[in-house]
Each structure stands twice: as C-alpha cells, then as structure tokens.
Automatic annotation (TrEMBL):
UniProt keyword annotations, A-Z: Cytoplasm
Residue intervals of the Polysaccharide biosynthesis domain: 15-142
GO cellular component: cytoplasm
Keyword Cytoplasm among UniProt keywords: yes
Primary location class: cytoplasm
Signal peptide as annotated in the record: none
Pfam families: PBDC1
Stated name of the protein: Protein PBDC1 homolog
Similarity field: Belongs to the PBDC1 family.
Annotated localization: Cytoplasm
Transmembrane among keywords: no
C-alpha cells in the first residue's frame, strides 16, 4: 500500500477547478452575509475569540487596524511570512478545513475582484476577516447596501 505524497502529486485540472468553485462559492456566501449584517456583529466560527487573540499575539502589527485593512500578498507569501503563517495556522489544525483554500480580499474597502483577492488558507481568511470585523472595517458593506435600497 502506497501513501499519498502531496509534494510529488500531479495537479489535476478538474480537482483544481473544483477547489476554485468552492473558494468562489465561499467568497460569495461571505459577501452576502456582509451585505446583510455589519461585520462588527458577525461571528464566523465558535473559535473567533481564540483566533483573534492568537493573531494579535503572533502578528502584533495587526493591533493597528490600518495593518489589517490592507494585506500584502508579497509579505504574506515571502519565506519569512510563510513560516510565520504556517506556525499560526498549525495552532488551529483541529478546526475543520482550516487549511482549505479560499479567497481573501487584499483591501477591506474593496469588493472581491480578480486583482483584489488572493488565494489563502481558510484559517488565514478567518483570522484576517475576524480582525477586520472586530475593528468595524467591513461595516461599510451593509451600510452601502441599505443606503442604496
């Protein structure tokens, strides 16, 4: 019996498409929630408090709202950024699908767009969006929808 080795596995186009569809569906669902409920009143998981506290401990720069308002993909995916995020993510491996791919907006004051979203793992999405929500940075979305109605 052989074991699966992710490092040498082929990337099958159909599997990649299924992951992409799931990531887009998750982004659309989240955006729909933000349109209806101010982010500051939204709870994403039963682990929100622990995720938020650990994020601020591991990434003290996120104590400043401006530093979570805009995320640098280059910094996040640099060698040192990857190492720091990997350590953070592994602390939440008990959360279902914590490492599943998802889309993350790079700027909290922008929509999901091809240029304005990056691929991240779910726990990174949770951490950054929980932080943004707690700082009220996503509240504009529901206000804009109500104002235009």
């Amino acid at each position: 019996m052989s074991t699966f080795d992710a490092e040498t596995a082929d990337n099958l186009e159909d599997i990649e498409k299924q992951f992409a569809v799931k990531a887009v569906t998750q982004a659309e669902t989240y955006w729909g929630l933000l349109e209806k409920i101010p982010g500051s009143k939204l709870k994403l998981t039963k682990h929100d408090d622990a995720i938020f506290e650990q994020l601020l401990e591991d990434f003290p720069e996120f104590k400043e709202p401006a530093n979570v308002a805009e995320i640098s993909e280059a910094a996040m995916k640099s060698v040192s950024g990857k190492a720091k995020w990997r350590t953070f993510c592994e602390k939440f491996k008990d959360i279902e699908d914590y490492n599943f791919g998802t889309l993350l907006r790079t700027k909290c004051d922008d929509f999901y767009t091809q240029e304005g979203a990056i691929f991240a793992v779910r726990i990174q999405f949770y951490a950054i969006e929980i932080c943004r929500n707690r700082y009220g940075l996503n509240d504009w979305i529901s206000r804009n929808i109500r104002a235009s109605a």
